[in-house]
Amino acid sequence: MNQQQSDVLAPDVGAAHGGECIRLEGLTRTFGDVIAVDHVDLLVRPGEIFGLLGPNGAGKSTMIKMIIGLLRPTAGDAFVQGMNVRRHPMEVKRRIGVLPEELHLYERLTGEEYLLFTGRMYGLGEETVRQRTGQLLNILELAEAADRLIIDYSQGMKKKVALAAAIIHRPGVVFLDEPFNGVDVVSSRSIRNILYHLVDNGMTVFFSSHVMELVEKICSRVAILKKGRLAVCGTIQEIRANLQIGQDKDLEEIFLHSIGESAEEQDLSWLG
């Protein structure tokens, strides 16, 4: 990656609020009698890849939606780079990038047209948006497909163009919900390399995933949600120590232990 390509990935981080990038204080969301997120306190530091884990229905997506301003908390507050999301939603949205699990792309645009459109929506100048679009297409190995309609892209290509749209305005924080879901090995490696580069240049990456091996490999710290509550948070080594389990336990075993599930195989002899 040359210097010109690298420049587009240097985030416009703004002023970090002390040693924190994201702070949650008693963050809560209910839907009727159902408590989806239950008084979560959390601190994410600038320049780290932070992984959010939890079984289906644990509240991960609901929590992310509150942090990025798409859902109002029932109680508590979320802060991004020192700004209260509830009080300053538009300013927060200008500083973040989002790659949702379910992609809602304008599939009748080409990849290049989609990035040009996204850049203009963020208020980038014509020259800037064209330069960054070209660089991102090259970095993500989409240059040869730039003039093809997104509807004809593979799932991995769609993920990559959505990631490019999430970072074209050089946000300080990028939120990724299941970024590796449905992505092949080649595209997965390409996305991982981009994430490493973003963090090396000061951006904070916050993502949820069910792919334990990837989370263990690339995240500096992880948090595990159980029924809307924060079960554990820290580095893998810190969590092992707090749970008083062996240092040989991998993240999958830590996850199962944290949510109170047994890793033992069930008797399925009746299927034989």
How many β-strand runs? 10
Using only C-alpha atoms, the radius of gyration works out to 19 Å
CATH fold type: Rossmann fold
> What is the CATH level 1 assignment?
Alpha Beta
Please describe the topology of this protein.
Blueprint (H helix, E strand, L loop, with lengths): L2 H5 L14 E10 L2 E11 L4 E5 L6 H8 L7 E6 L2 E2 L4 H7 E4 L11 H11 L4 H14 L15 H13 L5 E5 L7 H16 L3 E5 L3 H7 L2 E6 L2 E6 L1 H8 L7 H8 L14
Parallel strand pairs: 3-8, 3-9, 6-7, 7-8
Antiparallel strand pairs: 1-2, 1-4, 4-5, 9-10
Helix pairs in contact: 4-5, 9-10
Question: What are the key terms here?
Answer:
10 strands, 10 helices, Rossmann fold, alpha/beta, four-stranded antiparallel β-sheet, 272 residues
Question: What can you see in these coordinates?
Answer:
This protein has 10 helices and 10 strands. With 272 residues, it is α/β, with parallel strands linked by helices. It has one domain (3-235): Rossmann fold. Helix 4 (111-121) crosses helix 5 (126-139) and helix 9 packs across helix 10 (251-258).
